[in-house]
Amino acid sequence: MTVRVRTALLAATALALSAAVAGPAVAAPAATGGHDATRRALRAAVEDGVPGVTASARDGRGTWSGTAGVGDLRTGEPRSERDRYRVGSITKTFVATVLLQLEAEGRLSLDDTVDEWLPGLVAGHGHDGGRITLRQLLNHTSGVYDYTADEGFARDHFLKDGFFEHRHETVTPRELVAIAMAHEPDSAPGASWNYSNTNYVLAGLVIEAATGRPYGEEVRRRIIEPLGLGATSFPGTRTGLPEPSSRAYSKLAPTATGPTYDVTRLNPSIAGASGEAISDSADLNRFYTALFRGRLLPAQQFAEMTTTVPAREGADYGLGLIKRRLDCGVTVWGHAGGIHGSSSEAVTTGDGRHALALNFNGDWSGDAEAVIEAEFCGG
Fold it and tell me: A Pfam family matched by this chain, by name (predicted)?
């Protein structure tokens, strides 16, 4: 596996999305009632090598939570249903929601170009912010190069020696964009779908330009506080996880073999608006349920958010949302996310009546798609 592929693993959603659509999902075992199939899928993930799993679901029967495996390999302490964890690219749905709220308020348009808000920032090696719209940032059709695919960035932040040397360092959003600008675009604007974390780093900067406040502050006052998401935060440069939480583990290598390292502490500025958020499963379910029940966006903006483009076979991408059809015919919306030592999924049905969020505290094994199939198709 090349450094570039490993980078995609830790950038997470690109890998999670491809894993979700690479072929038919593993058929979920028939449940005898309740969430039995989901419980079995959690145990299967641990048998596959994930240290521990925590999950929570909301449906017409109420709220259910389950865990398997351990949260601390040293002490053997089990995972908790209340664990807070880094959600990686699930952050993108929060950021897209704020941009759409700003559009609803008339403070910007998704048809604005990047240059209108960030003059001259997206330029070089064929990049042209005057030809890229905010909508194209949010649905990954901008063609902007993904900074996490840069081999130097991957070496310094995703492989063992670089990670332990740089794990506490702050990288600014503009520095992340500059890394991307040193490469040619993936495509011309609007020509194709290419997942790029740079798109959402830019989206965060647009929020700041439009409001005069940090994007994390805007998410807090517009989403976190109104919904009472007590476990959700945008840590900025803080390296630790709030309690309760488990340890996070990674191989920090181009393969899924070798020693396992504790990577719990890191400076999430390397992800920024593309993936810095911390949450728990209950909060993620509350957020996606509220979004799909119309509590966060007017109808026009929600329609824009759920207008999709083909991503990869079997999945489509809206504005900060992945849409996929499961084996049993159920369609779910949400996002996958991963960052060092943490792999997460949060999905809901289109009516917001059935939601699931889960986290693996390891980034090299386990099949989150099988857990989703089990929950929505297994019983």
Answer: Beta-lactamase
Query: How many domains does the chain divide into?
Result: 1
Kindly name the residue from 89, 233, 245, 269 that is annotated as catalytic: 89
* Domain interval for residue 14: 3-377
Token pair, residue 371, equals 């857990």
Give residue 41's identity as a one-letter amino acid code. Answer: A
Residues 331-353, mean pLDDT to the nearest whole number: 98
Concerning whether 89 is annotated as a catalytic residue, the answer is yes
User: Pairing state of beta strands 85-86 and 278-279?
Assistant: antiparallel
Amino acid at residue number 359 = N
Residue 70's domain is classified under what CATH number? 3.40.710.10
Q: Report the distance separating Cα 34 and Cα 61, nearest Å.
A: 9
105-124: pLDDT as tens digits: 999 999 999 999 999 999 99
**pLDDT at residue 2, rounded to an integer:** 30
